[in-house]
Amino acid sequence: MLSPARLARRRAGLACLVAAPILLTAATAVDPALGDVDFAEAIAADPSAARLHTLLLHWCWVLFVPGLLALLAPIRRRGRVLATIAWPAAALGLATFAGLTLSDYFGLAVLDVADVAAFERVEEQVAQYGWLAAGWQVPGLLGWAAALLLTPLAAARAGQVGWWYPATAVPGFALYLLFAIEEPPLSLAGPVLLTAANAVLAARLWSRPQAEAGEEGFAAFRRTVGVVCLIGAPLALAAGMATLPGGAFHIAGGFAADPGAAQASAFFLHLAWLLFIPAVVEVTGRLTGRGWRLGQAAGALALIGLLHFNGLMIGDYAGLATEQVLDPVRAEAVTARLGEYASLSLGVALPGMAGALLGLILVPVAAARAGLVRWPVPVLAGVGWRRSSR
């Protein structure tokens, strides 16, 4: 039987697996750019609906990450080949894709303070950034597709779910992929099918007895990835801070003062917060005894926070593009307008920053309380976050 900690993690993942396609359905329903319309003109005509669509879509892909990881967690040997592809695709690729959706906020801000022509020039400038293509778009799109397509197959191959699940979930994702921007009801067919499949799956698995995954096979792969990411994340964070424009731990002269450094810094900071995700999952998954309750709460806080916070780094590319394309007055107006979007500040930025930073402090505390590490570790972690957040 599963320990209380792992049972709580599985049920939280199943809840996310149901909530995610519901949000996808809602996001598709309110999208003002469906059908045969010009994208820029459509979102400019109904910016409130466009912002709501972006928020729901971002949260949808965020919640899919813990949901898919919960399906993959019990896999041992059967299905491990598919799982070793699907797990990093979900933890890293899908998380990156969720961040990509936030770029729509910056496009909306440009449309609010300028016009369609300026929006198109900014979009063309962003498309020239190699760091964005290689570090965000390619891994994000590939990870998004691989996670949604392979996770149901891996879970069925391992015997964790019946084959009926991939037979419904995979076509549901395929329908969304093909018809996401078509007029309803065609655009809603995929999300509705995914919602039905995931709801039935969660109901069947919620109270089903399940053995511990053990330490062999796929579990060993996850442990290795988590340890590597635990080391790689702070190294990427240091690289991101060191490459900020101006060559110091602060931005000097704006992003346009050194476009190459600005792009590199945004990538490394995104990578840092991204790599902390597998590290947090691995550490909190090993907590037992006195620290497990705090560990699960801190882990959930950190995971959701990191899934938001890493995506906020996409704003550096948009900020660079506006500085390079628009005049200084309008570039500053774009930044000011972004601060006025409550859905961005309260729905993404606040949970991202608070969750990531507070969670990454509390996870080492929980690990020390559980006896996994000694108490100097959370002290050093707290000092490190305090210095890096200055």
UniProtKB/TrEMBL annotation:
Entry keyword annotation includes Ribonucleoprotein: no
Signal sequence extent: none
Protein name: Uncharacterized protein
Keyword hit for Membrane: yes
Organism phylogeny: Bacteria, Bacillati, Actinomycetota, Actinomycetes, Micromonosporales
Natural source organism: Phytohabitans houttuyneae
Ranges annotated as spanning the membrane: 53-73, 85-108, 128-150, 162-181, 187-206, 227-252, 264-285, 297-321, 341-365
Entry keywords, A to Z: Membrane, Transmembrane, Transmembrane helix
